[in-house]
Structures are given as structure tokens and as C-alpha cells.
Amino acid sequence: MIKKTILLLIISLGTSGYAQTSLDTYIQMGLEKNEVVKQQNFDINKSMYALKEARALFYPTVSLNANYTKADGGRTIDIPIGDLLNPVYSSLNQITNSNAFPTLQNQSVLLNPDNFYDAKIHTTMPLLNFEIIYNKRIRSQQNSLQKIELEIYQRELVKEIKIAYYKYLQSLEGVKIYEQALTLVKENQRVNQALFKNDKINRTAVLRSDNEVLRIEANLETAKQASNNAKAYFNFLINRKLDTEIDADTQNETLPDLMLEENTRNREELKKLDLVEELNGNVNKLTQSYWFPKLSGFADVGFQDFDFEVNKQSRYYLAGLSLEWNIFSGNKNKYRLRQVEEDSKKIASQKDNVEQQLLLQHEVAQNNLKSALKQFDAEKDQKEAAKKYNEDITKLYKEGQALYIELLDAQNQWVNAQLNTNVSLYNSWIVFAELERANATFTFKN
């Protein structure tokens, strides 16, 4: 019965501990060296720097500004200083009987300063800006999204590594079965040739045995190439040279645990949508912040003078506040807000759909595992029966009580039964890996 053949996962791990340890090592290697994982980590680092950039917007900005102006021509301001003061100076000279007060000329001053410099330290700092606040929150959530994306890919990678590993083990066992079959048919070929020389059988049996040798050799070569392909794909997943040898250990016909409770509510896909929903809420608030005023402060400390003079009069400082408050923008922000609200509705719909998809994925994987286990149970019984049948027919053939075609049929049944059992065994582990992925039960090492 299937209950007798199904072992708990803990027991199966114990009976094939080295294989599981090797697989765990390869999984860890893949999580560290896989190129897509590296690319995902680059994206996480990029989003982390974007978050730090958003945080930096809260700090003051300090810059050194300097300019020098050389001017000639252009608009002027006429100052009639001579017309105003010369009559007064003339009267004073007469009273004092001297020339102490000179005659002044009217002045014409350029509006553009000539030979003028201005060098200052300019500092600005936001005091009230909701856009910066919500931008920082959005950047933080985007960084968290990148981490969840990495976890989703890592779970998928773990599944692919496990499936590739089981398929490689499956291919090795297939090669082993065909090698044993080749030994068997070559022995049949030797026996038939001996019997033909002694006129015990006709030439047809010899030709048929020769053809069987050729057929099994061809199947063996195909199995070897399939094994090489499985090895190359597995090494590709963990970013090693494609022809690198793999520590391969069979499962010794132990089966995975069937009983995995549904745990799809902890899937990263749902966590991602929850976070996207929160992020969209902050985008909504960011859009609404258009209505709020922006207040910032500024301060300048520096020197300005003509002819590069530097003295006490050259020094200056300037400080103040800047207020910006948008009053009207053609309702563009209103329509932008409507777009964000539609995104919120879409995200809510996606959550419901994804929840159903994940439940369906788990249900299908669970049913596939039940089917695979039953199939293995049936194939295992058929293998035992085929083995006994082959042994009986082989004995009868050697005694001359069975035809070669009967022997050939028994041997083919025995080989096919071994192949089918091998396929169903590792298919059970492959389906279990898919169930584990659907249930998000694999635990990552810190």
C-alpha cells in the first residue's frame, strides 16, 4: 500500500543524508553564484543608494558661488552732482576767500557694474516639503520590493536546481540500466552464437540477438548524451563550468513526504502586492502634496567689491525664507491623482486573482504528487514481477524449454520496468520540489 511506501521527509533525508547534503551545498552555491541573483543584488544596491539619495534631500545644500563682472556701455544713471553742489561750493569759497571747495562734474554711472566681483557661500535647506517626505518613503518601499523580487527568484532558482539535480540522477540511473541491459544482450548474443554453431538454433535468433545489441548500444548512447545535457544545465544554474562533475547519490527508492499543509498566504508574491499597495498609497499622498506649501531657508555669506578690494566693507551676509504654494496648474494634478486611484483598484483586483492562482498552483502540485507516488508504487510492483518473469524465462531458455522471442520479451519487460520505476521515482521528487515551491516552505540560510 502507498501508506507503507511513503516515508516522512525527515526519514527520507536521514536515509539519503549525503545526497541531501550535497544538494543543499549546490543550492547554496547557486544562490551565491547564479548570474541572475548577482544582477538582482545589483538592483538592490542601486535602490539602496536611491534611498540614501532621498534621505540626503533633508540636509542642507552648501555651495561656493563666485562671479566677476567686466562691463562697458549700456544703460546709465545720470547724477547732476555738479549742478547741485557747484553753486554751494562757489559761495563757500567766496566766504572763506579760498579754493577749498572744488568744482564738481555731473556724473553718469553704468547700471552694469564694472570690474566687480561677488564671492559667497550659498546655503539652502528645506524646512517644509511633503514631496521630499513621501519620496523618501517611496524609495524605501522600492528597496523592499527589490528584496522581495530577489526572494521570489531565489525560490524559483531553488526549485530549478532541485529539478535539474533529480533529472541528472534520473539520467545516471538510466545509463546504468542500459549498461546492465547491454551486458545481458551481449551474453544472449554469445549464447546464441554458440548454440548456432552446435546447430541447436537457426540463424534468425543470432541475427535478432545482434540487432538487440545494436539497439541497446544506441539507446545507451542516447542516455549518455541526455545525462551530459542534464549535467550541463545543472552546472549552468549554479554558474560552474558545464562539464564539471556532480556529486550524485541516488534516493534509494525513498519517497518525499506527501503531507504539506497549504501555506500560500506566506508567498512572497502576496507580500509584494501588499507592499505595492502601500507604495501606491504613498504615491497618492505624494500627488496630493501638490496642494501643500513648500518652505525653505537660505543664507549667503561672502565678499563683494570693485577692483578685487577685500576689506570690512566688502563682507556681507544675506538670509531669508522662501515660500512656494501652487494655486492653479490646469487640473493636471487632479487627473494625475485619478490615475493613482485607478492603479489602487487594479492592485486590489490583482491581489484577489493572485491568491486564487497560488491556491490553484498548490492544489495542482499536491494532486500531482499523489498521482506520482501512486504511479511509483505501481511501477515498483511491476518491476518486481518483471524481474521474476525474466529470471524464470531465462532459466527455461537455457534448458531449451522456451523460445528466444519469449526470452527477448521477458528481457525487454525487465529493462522497461526498471526504466519506468526510475522515471517515476525521480518524477515524485520533481513534483515534490514543485509543491515545495508552491507552498514556499524552503528555508533560506542567513
From TrEMBL:
InterPro entries: OMP_efflux, TolC-like. GO terms for molecular function: efflux transmembrane transporter activity; porin activity. Gene3D superfamilies: Outer membrane efflux proteins (OEP). Residues 1-19 form the signal peptide. The keyword S-adenosyl-L-methionine does not apply. It is found in: Cell outer membrane. Keywords: Cell outer membrane, Coiled coil, Membrane, Signal, Transmembrane, Transmembrane beta strand, Transport. Belongs to the outer membrane factor (OMF) (TC 1.B.17) family. It comes from Flavobacterium zepuense. Residues 337-386 form a coiled coil. This is TolC family protein. GO terms for cellular component: cell outer membrane; efflux pump complex. It holds the Pfam family OEP.
